[in-house]
Amino acid sequence: MKIVNDNRASRTFHPVWKIVLSGVILFGSVIGNGSIVNGAGSGQPTFQDTSKSFAKEAIARLVQKGIVAGTTEHTFEPKKAVTRAEFASFAVRLLGLEPVSNNIKPFADISAKAWYYGNVAAMTNLSILEGKGQNQFQPNASITREEAAALLVRMLKQHPVASDSIYNTYVDAADISSWALPYVQKVHQLGLMRGSSGMFRPADQVTREEAAVMLDSILQNNTWATQIQRKQDHGIQLGWQYNSSTAEFIRQVDQSPVNTVVPRWFFLNQDMNVSDHANATLISWASASGRALWPMLGNRSNKEMTHQMLSSSANREAVVNQVSAYVKKYKLGGINVDFENVDPVDREGFTAFVTSLTKSLHTLGAVVSVDVSPNLGSDWTAAFDYVKLGAISDYMVLMSYEEHWNGDPKPGSVASLPWVDRALTKMLSEVPRTKTILALPLYTRDWSTVNPATASWDITLGEQGVRALASGSLRNWDTQLKQYIINYTSNSVARAIWAEESRSLSAKVRMSGERNIAGLAYWYMGGETADVWNAITNAMRFESYQF
Q1: Residue 435: which of 350, 353, 340, 358 has the closest Cα?
Q2: Domain final residue, candidates 229, 244, 263
Q3: Where does the record place the SLH domain (predicted)?
Q4: Residue 422 gets which letter from DSSP?
Q5: Residue in 354, 336, 468 with CA at minimum distance from that of residue 12
Q6: 385 in helix, strand or coil?
Q7: The pTM is what?
């Protein structure tokens, strides 16, 4: 979590799945102009031009599932070339994903209003799709066979194979681009693309009937199809309330996959009483909507007051009793402990407090989650015994942000992928993965490159998008940090933003998915743009596939 003035708001974890597929996919298929023709649910396709196509059966199956569509009600045009945008759209539907209208465009030559924009962005967010040249996608260019090979391998999360045997497989192997050779070798091994007469024809355009056979082959593989069709469960999805009314918070959560809500209700006071700001409307809504309710218990980052409580067993028990009474009164599912700026001398006292609170809440059927910053060996985290807290509490929430903090003399990312990866790796060396929740930022920082320590400030992802569109702004994707770096000038001052948005968050979600942790959290609800939720859902879903 991050410090906001003297309070720490809890973060939210959102269950990012909303689809349970009964067949392999989705709704109607979109053709080049965005219309739906002969899509799913329209009965058997009645195309007049596929009877002699080698892909006739594959086309019929894909049309029924809404993955591909005809070009008119009665024509499929099997020999017509497939564009890069069309193939990306086919892939999104086949994988059971959602289009994502990225707030920051991944390529300069695609319009956010284009029918294919959400599909191209969705594939780019997952690193399945790549551009052609500097910041270009060429959506209307025909996809080549070697490009299709690369997409198929990435779609199935396979590892490209570099082998000289490809030269024994295809007589035109020398014509295959060097970057594409491992992908062509892999799709040959998988049986998804074979070529003909000993030739692969890497630069040839992929036709609609060829694309149908490739995609249908994936669904005819029981292992792959089962993964795509299975019900998704992405664990805890936790969202913190901050700077929003109850009505606003409910609306924010309703528009997200969050299944665990954390309002800022309980705070330790100087007299050792715990203030109660519970809201009956939110309690009723959480119960009716099936969301878990884990209100935050905060210390307002007050080191002295916190020491007064933690250093006295009587004070600790008094606070535990008050919090337990609130849990019982409001029938809460848990408490999110957010104590920050804790004195290192209170390390044992904090562990004792969490031990007592967890024991008490377990008798009420409630859980305890504890927010912690990355363990970097500094005084900021010295009060937290990660190993003992991980053993005692139900969940540990890793606040994986503030890599470069507010007031840092060196501008930089709030949460670059390498830094978050290292922080999570360290956490998992001390805390069981089944108890670990990774909190991600739905905010970033607008830095002055001249005076970063005093002339920089936090901004929402929406505010970030406005700056990205400002006249004269420059944007570059950093392949190491997995973030856009936005540079612009305001009032003659050079400024920089290390962006958090759908693409960067997708990379971090996928990384966390590889670790099979308990879930995700988000600081804070309302800081996001609407596209973020589909992006996160896609990343969690795609990462769960075990092809």
Answers
A1: 358
A2: 229
A3: 42-105, 107-166, 167-229
A4: H
A5: 336
A6: coil
A7: 0.92
